Amino acid sequence: MQSSANCALLQIINSGIDWKLLLELMDFHRVMLVVGRQLLNIGTSEVPEKVMEQVRYWQREATMKDLGQTIELLRILKLLQENGVEAIPFKGSVLAQYLYGDLSLRESSDIDLLVHQQDVLTVKRILASIGYLPWPRLPPAQETALIRHACVYELRNPERCAALELHWKNSKHPSLPFPADFVWNRQQETSIGGMQIKTLLPEALLLLLCVHGTKHSWRRLRYVCDLADTLRVAGNLQWGDMLESARQLGAGRMVLTGMSLAHGLLEAPLPDMVLREIGQHPQVRLIAAERSEEVFHSPREWETGYWTICRFNFSSFDSWHGRLRYLLRMALVPGVQDFEAARLPRFLFPLYRCIRLFRLAWHLTVGENSPPAP
Fold first, then answer.
1. Are 360 and 331 in contact (CB under 8 A)?
2. From start to end of 71-184, where are the E strands?
3. Under DSSP, is residue 112 helix (H, G, I), strand (E, B) or coil?
4. Which of 15, 128, 157, 212 has the fewest CB atoms within 10 Å, i.e. is most exposed?
5. Distance between terminal CA atoms of the chain?
């Protein structure tokens, strides 16, 4: 007997599918594996063979990549544990295991670790022993300034084609005033690959997923899928505490928008109290409606310029204080690309703010898709 999901999928297929557009959307939204699994369940009698071939190719590639990333993640975590350095994996293999119990159902491009800010250079030194190098390489003075101002530090291992991002403080959205101990007070232990590792409590994970989706203007369905599937598997959540934490950070609108998208697009379960809160915020409903409609457009129709992303993030803060903090940070706080643009002597470091402003003006004028990294 076919499942209700398969029956619904068959009805959609029988009504007529633009298979080329579907594959394009699956790729853009990074849901090739989840949607592909459903298409494989339907079978070749309903799905064109060329589509099935593409889906199988994606699955093979993603399975090999995800397995390699998981092995690499465990190798890194073991080395850090042996050296007494705390680290919490975020997204990637750990999230795939938590959501699906299957590493092959969520694609990931790199490894993300949450670490203490004061441990960043220690982690760099430890991982250099297994081939990880900073990307890009900066002189010591610029590197120290980057760690002080920014909240993301990238390492790459050329031999293993592996990319690792170290996050600290409030890196899921640099303009939110996360306490330095936010994630460290909201962790638990889990097991992956037979190894005990730390991971985030569901409430902290949900909040960070909402903030992360906002940072990228919810332009990929993958962000909504992560949120919806977390809501399905998390069990009894402390909704009151999570919403209060979001309000204290000025991220209440971000969380409610994410929840509205997960509920509206993917029927994620939400308690009545959250649905009532969404109903009381017209701006949340408006933003969610706009994002929901754009999900079904061809990626070529998306507005992806830097100004569009800035405008969306600006409107997502709860208060004008948060919006002002966002603008000041984006305009004046130098990031890795700014430090890489010019190797200034230490006494000229204040000029990096000018470089930041110049690059920001260039991005806004030219309309390049990728913003200058904060």
1. yes
2. 88-89, 111-114, 133-134, 152-157, 162-167
3. strand
4. 15
5. 52
Burial class (CB in 10 A: 0-12, 13-18, 19+), 315: middle
Task: Give CA–CA dist 98/199, Å, rounded.
Answer: 10
Relative orientation angle of helices 351-366 and 320-332, to the nearest 10 degrees: 100
Summarize pLDDT for 238-275 with one digit per residue, the tens.
999 999 999 999 999 999 999 999 999 999 999 999 99
Nearest to residue 188, comparing CAs of 197, 202, 199? 199
Question: Which residue type is seen at 213?
Answer: G
Question: What's the CA gap between 289 and 257, in Å, rounded?
Answer: 9
**DSSP strands (E only) in the chain:** 88-89, 111-114, 133-134, 152-157, 162-167, 187-192, 195-200
Tokens (6 digits) for 143: 């590197």
pLDDT digits (tens, 9 = 90+) for 38-84: 888 877 678 889 999 999 999 888 888 888 999 999 999 999 999 99
3-state SS string over 15-48?
A: CCCCHHHHHHHHHHCCCHHHHHHHHHHHCCCCCC
Closest CA to 218 of 302, 276, 153: 302
3-state SS, residue 105: helix
pLDDT at res. 15: 82
**In the prediction, which pLDDT does 294 show?**
83
How far apart are alpha carbons 362 and 12 in whole angstroms? 45
- SS3 sequence of the chain: CCCHHHHHHHHHHHCCCCHHHHHHHHHHCCCHHHHHHHHHHHCCCCCCHHHHHHHHHHHHHHHHHHHHHHHHHHHHHHHHHHCCCCCEECCHHHHHHHHHCCHHHCCCCCEEEECCHHHHHHHHHHHHCCCCEECCCCCHHHHHHHHHHCCEEEEEECCCCEEEEEECCCCCCCCCCCCCCCCCCCEEEEEECCEEEEEECHHHHHHHHHHHHHHCCCCCHHHHHHHHHHHHHCCCCCHHHHHHHHHHHCCHHHHHHHHHHHHHHHCCCCCHHHHHHHHCCHHHHHHHHHHHHHHCCCHHHCCCCHHHHHHHHHHCCCCHHHHHHHHHHHHHCCCHHHHHHCCCCHHHCCHHHHHHHHHHHHHHHHCCCCCCCC
